[in-house]
Structure formats: structure tokens, C-alpha cells
Fold Pyrophosphate--fructose 6-phosphate 1-phosphotransferase.
Amino acid sequence: MAKKNAFYAQSGGVTAVINASACGVIETARNHKDKIGKVYAGRNGIIGALTEDLIDTTKESAKAIAALRTTPSGAFGSCRFKLKSLEQNKREYERLIEVFKAHNIGYFFYNGGGDSADTCYKVSQLSETMGYPVQAIHVPKTVDNDLPITDCCPGFGSVAKYIAVSTLEASFDVRSMAKTSTKVFVLEVMGRHAGWIAAAGGLAEEQGIPVVILFPEIEFDQKKFLAKVSAMVEKHGYCSVVVSEGCHYPDGKFLAEQGTRDAFGHAQLGGAAPVVANMVKEALGHKFHWAVADYLQRAARHIASKTDVEQAYALGKSAVELALKGQNAVMPTVERISDKPYKWKVGVAPLSKVANVEKFMPRNFITPDGFGITEKCRAYLTPLIKGEDYPPYKDGLPQYVQLKNIAVAKKLAEFKI
Amino acid sequence: MAKKNAFYAQSGGVTAVINASACGVIETARNHKDKIGKVYAGRNGIIGALTEDLIDTTKESAKAIAALRTTPSGAFGSCRFKLKSLEQNKREYERLIEVFKAHNIGYFFYNGGGDSADTCYKVSQLSETMGYPVQAIHVPKTVDNDLPITDCCPGFGSVAKYIAVSTLEASFDVRSMAKTSTKVFVLEVMGRHAGWIAAAGGLAEEQGIPVVILFPEIEFDQKKFLAKVSAMVEKHGYCSVVVSEGCHYPDGKFLAEQGTRDAFGHAQLGGAAPVVANMVKEALGHKFHWAVADYLQRAARHIASKTDVEQAYALGKSAVELALKGQNAVMPTVERISDKPYKWKVGVAPLSKVANVEKFMPRNFITPDGFGITEKCRAYLTPLIKGEDYPPYKDGLPQYVQLKNIAVAKKLAEFKI
């Protein structure tokens, strides 16, 4: 096998640990210099490939690459851009091949969620459909935890830990205030269709906190919800509500919509928390506080889960190893061996079975009344938030690395997306 | 001096480190058993004194009390309740004396902010006005950092660290997304009248982040604000906005009001972030994300500042020492000796000069354009967020202590507030 270069890019919403996967990919490739040439990173995801805006990662020191492991966000820039099908947009695929050829790229590592798995799958078919030999491996990443086959997705464990810790802390706060002031605290969390992140708020129950969860998987029933909150406040003097941004009425209408849509056509949500809080105030008269975690939750590297960081790195590493074994159109996965003690290993899934499939919370992870998590869910979640993996600090702030991101000289004509 | 018992209570909004002050008070009192009898904590602040709902802290193990140092929120419950003046409500003062007498209380430690300092000051005058000998010492606590005389207030350093870290992390996130998606991230922070918390967001600039800050001290000018954001996005491709909940128009109207008021008559705010975000979207067309940190910021013991924890403990300890020296109507303070290296010592302030005085950001801590912090402000803030002081964890969650909070047997008739 002639020595080829590799392309790596980050896609979709970034996470606290996507750079740990980048670290895994780059460090592993550097350990196989006999087989893999340079790793070129796409500036802003696949757009970097289309526009020939490649970053030469060989210009970064070993120390800088190692520091990616403790740095949140996408070090090379991410994008929200989904390749159309070959029939709909042959021009873009031809351009990709042109860029790959110009820079001798034979490996394509794409680090993203469901939509990105679809892009990666399309690229993996280029050998067959367009006659250009490229091995495309998807590195899973999504805070939403909604990819199929893999037991969990890198990025999720850390956001789950953030939400569990934040729910616990804010609940301690509202409990302190409940006698004369705030009785209900509402936290809005991410998760358009799947309630995995919201479920993590339920882990605060471990320490006796009354938590009411509003999942996207359960149609919102205002009357039942208010009765639940009322009962909780009656019993405990206070309660916390964790509401998923994707929580919706039976007709599909979200509790709150900002009205804007992202590049994939998804509604951009936000603002369910104040809606829920006001509902409680009007019906029950309880004073409330609400928070919307938004980016804070998925960027919170300072409270990342050790399990998550290790898995993010391991799957980046495995992606390169799968490529070296000649694989194409696959994604390394987390396979759970046991809950307690938590044991897992790296598996592999065909991209054809990953792309465009969403994994929702199983109904038996949600309590019969629809407002809490079951023991089964708790057993699933707990290992994923386990362990702390603190970044280094200087003068009170985490020392996150910023790469030089030096561009590779362009060889081709400009391309308009 | 005959041996008297002590009363300790927590008041107002709780913080990540108010329990560290409680720990300082109780551990120090336990070290002076020859002079101080039992420490009784008021359940839910001063309300516990009025209703004779006292918690016997001697029932708690040394281990449990030590764990208060790493536990956020108010372990004995807090309250939003301000004593009226003696002329307006003599009945409550008489009741306090009745309870103090019944339980042989000679020391009154009140842990709170500006309103609580006023309550503490009123109690300190009971010796003179009502002939009952009691020494009242105020232990400062407020995330708002708006108490006078003291260089800073316990509780502030940790919320400042949380906001600085969160702004940094979310800004890394928006920078990753800016090419094809979100360009402006808006974070709403606490601070009704003083912009200290918002200022902490400016510390993210240390790592090259473009941050626009909206202070309550600077009247909001929409045109200037939008021009600033536009220039930042033009230059950096993205920017972060940190908006104080107290940010308001020249006529005093807040950017967003929920319309409800707390027990002190303050408007309960929230929702400035979506207002600002939509403003940016409409005027500049930039895609946005927004977060409201609310309780998450002041409860975030997981990312507490070491400086803050140490000061919170030290001032609790000093309060007891001041009492043992026979002082009354005072508050221990932080006196800064130098910025770099950061050195400080405990000072003391008369409560007559603390009660009902608010300390705002000096104008020279804010840049001339009103949207940033100066080097002077940075030199002030940096030592306050310095150092990490992580709580212990188990199964991925911080192990926060929950006390037994056993009530002292009542001796008096019921009292209606």
C-alpha cells in the first residue's frame, strides 16, 4: 500500500471532548508514519475539503496535540453542512476527489453525529461510485447520544456529568431558599429528539433531590405535569424541573421555538424553561428560578467525565487503526461489557446502519408516569459520568490550547460552495 | 464572662461557599468550648430565631461540619426576610430577646449580604435599645460583591470563576461554529445593580476571546451596542456577549423583567439574554445562542475558587474570634495587601458603615466605551478566581454533605411572623 495522507474534520455541534478524539486520531497517525503521511485537518469541517482549506497538523508540536485532550470545542473549526446525494450534487463529490487527489489523501476521518455519519458514508462510497480509492471512517461524536449501535457517544458523558452536577447544585440552592422564596427551579437542557441529556438530571436524585424531567419522548401533558410539581413541592418543600429543549405537545409543537432553523433544517430551539416556569407560577403560585444551559453544557470541559474523555480518545485512535486494517465505511463504537464494574471495549459498526438513524430513550428507561428515570437508566448513565479529568489551570482559568492552524498551500482553482 | 451559646444563621441568596463560612464559625466555636457553649443554627435564617426553630449543631459530627467547606448552598436553610426598624416592629425584637434569653444566646453570627448586614446591625443594637446583652457579628457573603469596605465578598470569587470559565468555554464553542452557524453567544449573569459578576466574563479575553459586556452601571445604548458587536464579529468572526440581569435603559427599565418581586421588594429579573440575542439577530442577521446561568452560577461549588473558599472560611473563623474579643456590631473584612503576588489579611469594619451601602464597579474598572474591563479591573479580579478547590466525588457526582439538622427542644409559645 503506497503511503497516503489523511484528512480529518470535525462536524456539527462541538463538544467538550471532540478534540480528545482529534488527539487520538493525530497521535495514532503520527505513530504510524510508515503507513500514513500527513494528517490534514479540514478548516471548518467538510467545507475545508471542498474549498481546499486544509490545515497542516504536522506544524503542531506534540505538546499542542496532546493538549487537545483537555481542550473543549473544535480546534479546527466545525460546520453545519450536509452533502447532498451524489445524484443531486455530483459537482461537490467531484471536487472532493479533486482535492483528495491533489493532496494524496487516502483516508477520510469525519468526527460528528448522525448527519455527519451520512456525509461520511457518502464519501466512503466514492471508491465505488467515482473510482477514487478512499477509506472513510466515522468517529462518533454527539452530546445528544442518539447514534445507533454504539452504547454511547463521546461528548455525551461529559454533558451528562455537567447536567447531573448542575442539577444537584442548583437543587441544593433552591432547597435553601424554599421556605421564604424560590420553590421551583427549572433547567433547560439540549436534546432535540432524544432525552438522554435531560435524563442525566435525574442522577441528582441519588442525593435525595426531587427532580421532574420533561423528555422529548413523552408528549407534554400540562395538567399531569403541574400535578406532579405540586405533589413534589408538597412533599419536599421544593423541586427541580429538567426540561429538554425538544419537549413538545401532542401536536408536535415545541414548548418554545425561536423560529429560526439551522443549515440542516432543524428548528433552533430555546426558551422552554421560562415557559415551564411561568406555567408553574400561574397555576401553583410558586416562586421560581430558571436557567438555560445552552452552550455551557456541551463546552464544559472543566467538569468533563473521565470515562467520556477516555472513550473519545480511544475511538479516535481506533478509527486510524481500522483504516490501517483496510476498513472503509465503518465507525468505531463503544461496546458495554458490564455496568458494575463498568467495562467496555471498542467495537465497529457499518456506516450503512448508522447514517440517518436516531436512538431514543427506551421507554423502560423512563418511569411509568413519564417524569423520571428508572433504575435501568441509572445503571446505564452512572458509569458514563464517572471520574473527573480536570484540565490544567493558570491564574484561575483552564489552559486550553489554541493551535497555529497553518494552511497547506493550495494547488487548485477556487471552488464556490 | 459567663459562658453563652451562639446563634448562627444564613441569609439571602446562598452561594457556593457560604457553608465554608458556617464551617469556619462552627469549628472555631468548637475550639473555644471554654467560652462559647453550643452553636445553634437558625433554620431558614432569622426566621429560625423568631420561630424558635433552632438547630443543634453539636449533634453533627466533626466530619460532617468539615464537609460543609466543600458543600454549596445553605446547609441550615436561608431566608429572604428583613427585620423592620425597632419603631416599626418592636414585637419581633422582643421575640428575638425572648428566644435568646430562653436559650442563653449571647453571640449572634449572621451570614449574608447588604440587607442581612442591616438586620445584623439592628440586632447588635439590642444591648443598648432593649437592655439585652448580645454581640452581633456579620459574616459577609454575597455573589454580588457589593458590600462596602471589604475588598471582596465571599461567594463572589467562585461565581466569578464560574462565569470566566463558562464564558471562555462557550466562546471556544461559538468560534468553532461561526463559519456556517452561530456567530454570537449571549450569556446572562446575575447582578442587579453592580456589574462585578458580568466583569468576570471579561477575564476570558486573557485567551484572546472577544467579549462585549453589558454592565448595570452603564446605561444601555442599543445603537452603540450593536455597532460594537458588529465590529467584533467583523474582526474575529464571532463574539460573546455577557449581559448582567441588571442591565437597563437610561429610564431605568431593565432589558427584561419577569414582573415579580422578592421579599425585599427587588424586581426578580431574568431573560435579558434572549432580548439581547434577538436584537443582534434582527439588526445584524447573525445566528445566535444564549444561556441564562441563574442558580447554576452561584451554586457551582464544583468549580469554586480556592481563594474564595479560604476567605469564606477565614471570615467565619474571624467572626468568632472578634466575638471572643468582646466586639459587637462589626464585620470581618478582606483587606488586600498586594495584587501580585496576591496577599490579603482579615480586617474589621463597623456595621454602621456596612448596612445599606452598595459598592458598584468603579468607572475606571470599565473601558471608556463601556463594554469591557480595564487592566485595573483585571488586576483586581484575577487573584479572586485563582486556585481550584474540588469537592470529593463518588460515582461521578460531588459528595455534598446533608446535615441531620436536629431541632433544639422549644421552650416558648408559638410565634406568628
Q: What stands out?
A: The radius of gyration of chain A is 22 Å. The CA atoms of residues 135 and 328 of chain A lie 5 Å apart. The mean pLDDT of chain A is 94. Chain A has two domains: 4-141+303-356+388-398, 156-301.
